[in-house]
Amino acid sequence: MTARKDIEAITDRIRERSRPVRELYLDRVGRAASSTANRATLSCGNLAHGFAVCSPSEKAALGGDRVPNLGIITSYNDMLSAHQPFETFPGLIKEAAREAGGIAQVAGGVPAMCDGVTQGQPGMELSLFSRDVIAMSAAIGLSHNMFDAAVYLGVCDKIVPGLTIAALTFGHLPAVFIPAGPMTSGLPNDEKSKIRQLYAEGKVGRAELLEAESKSYHGPGTCTFYGTANSNQMLMEIMGLHTPGSSFINPGTPLRDALTREAAKRALAITQLGNAYTPVGRMIDERSVVNGIVGLHATGGSTNHTIHLIAMAQAAGISVTWQDISDLSEATPLLARVYPNGLADVNHFHAAGGMGFLIRELLDAGLLHEDVQTIWGEGLRPYAIEARLGADGTVAREPAPRQSGDEKVLAPAAKAFQPSGGLKVLSGNLGHAIIKTSAVKPERRVVEAPAVVLDSQEALNAAFKAGALDRDFVAVIRFQGPKANGMPELHRLTTVLGILQDRGHKVALVTDGRMSGASGKVPAAIHVTPEALEGGPIGRLHDGDLIRLDAETGLLEALVPAEELATRPISSPDLSANEHGMGRELFAGFRQLAGRADQGASAFGLA
After folding, report:
1. Domains located in the chain, CATH noted
2. Which Pfam family is an annotated match for this chain, by its short name (predicted)?
3. Is 156 labeled as ligand-binding?
4. 453: which strand partners?
5. How far apart are CA 271 and CA 70, in angstroms?
C-alpha cells in the first residue's frame, strides 16, 4: 500500500526543502563507501594497532580484505537499569559474528546518564548536551576505520538520538540498533504518582516515598512508563533500525539473547562485502523520518523527540520543522494509551499486540510509508509481526494478531482514542511551543489565567509550600532554554501542578525548558522558542499578565497590548549559579553554541 495523500504531501514538502543538503550528504556517503573492507586503506602499522589483542586466527582474517568486521558502540554502565543488561551483549555479539564468518570488536563506549537520577539536580543541566557528546564519542570510536558495519547498544533518553546522529554521520556503514528491553512491571505508575503527590503535600514521609519509587524502578531494563526511552525503542523499530519485533522483549530472557545474536548476524549480512549492502545514510530517508514521526503521534510519545528527531534528521541531510510535526499530528490518530497517557505500561502495550499490531494498523490505514528500506530488507510490512523463541533457540516470527489483546491499551485504527496525535505546536505572541495533549483531558486543554513568573522550578515549589498558589494561574518558568542552562527537564513541577489541578484550579505551565518524556495531565507549553536568554517574549512577562493557552486551536498568547509587550525590557536574572558544579563549567561552549529548540538544540551545526 502507498501512504495517504496527506502523508505523501508532507513527505514531499520535507523532501523538496531538504533536496540541496540531502544531495550533498548522499554524495559524501557514496564517496566514503569502499568496495573492499574499510580497513584495507590502513597501513600495516595502523592495522597492527587495530588488531593487536586479537587471536591469531582473527589477525589472519583482519589482515585480508574480505572478512567483515563489526564495530560495537556500547553505552553500558551498571547504574542505568536500562543499560545494565548490555554488560553481556559484546560477548554474545562476538560469538554470533564468529558463527557468521565475521569478527566483532568493541569500537568504543559512550556516556549514558540517567535522567531519573539527575531530575531536579544540577547534573540535569548536562542532559540535553549529553546527546551531542554521545554522538561525538561514537564518532571517535568509528574513526579508526576498522569496521564494515556497526551495532549500537543504547536505550535511554539522549543516548539513542546521539547514537543515531553518529550512525548517520558514518552513513556509509550499515547500522543496527540493539535494545535491551523493559524491566518487568512493578508498582503501577498511577500508584507511584499518588504517593509522590501525598509526599509533596506532607501526608507521607520519605520512607514511604522511597519504598514506592523502589517498587516501581526495581530491576534491569527500561523504566516501564512511556517516556523518552521507550519512545526511542518505538522509533528505532518503526524506522527499520531494529530487527522486527525486538523493541519490548524483557532482558535476561532466551528470546532477548536470540534477538541480540540475530541482530549481529544481520549487521554482518548487509555490509558492502556481501550482496545486500545497506548503508544507513541511504536507508534512512524522508519517508523513514515521517514514519518515525507518525509512530510518535500514534503512541502519544515523548515531547523530547520534537527536538531529537529534528537533530537526527539533520545528520542525514533532512530538514524537518515543527510545522511538519504538527501537520503529521493532525493526520495521525492516537492508538495507544500507555502511562502517562493511560494506566498501562509498556509491558501491557507489548502484550496487547505491541509494535507489530501498531505497524500493521498504521500501514493498513495508509499512515506509514511501506516502501522504505530497512535493515531487514525492502518494505516495512515484515515488521507487522510478533517475535517468539523458536524450537531451535533462534527467533521465530508470526503475523501480528488481528485483534488487540486489550483495546483500552492498544486500539485498532477504526477505534482510535482520538483522531489526532498526541503532540501539537502552539503559536502566538510568545513564539512557538510544544504541548503534549494526549495525556491532558479535553476539558483541561484551554486555560486563561494570570501569570506567576519565576526563573526556576525550585522557586515554584517554594511558593507552593508557602501556600501562595492555591488559585488559578499559569506558571511561567523562563531562562531554562539551551543557552541559559542547557534546557533541563523540569520534572519536579509535575507533582505540584498536578496537586493544584486536582484541587479544582485551572493551572498550566509555560516554559522555555523541557518536561520529562513522562509529561502528564497538566497542560504544558514547553520548548518555548525563542528562549528568554535570546530575547524571547517570554522574558518580558510580568506577574499578573493574563496568559491564554489553547491546545485546541494551537494558541499561546499573552493578553498584553502588542506595543507594551514589545517595549518591555527583558528580565536579566543572575545565571552564574548554572555555570559551575557537577561538570557544568565544562559545557560553557555548548551553551554558547546551542541552537534553538525548534532547530534541534544542537551544539554543533549539521548541514
Report:
1. 68-184+219-399 (no CATH), 423-599 (3.50.30.80)
2. ILVD_EDD_N
3. yes
4. 476
5. 9
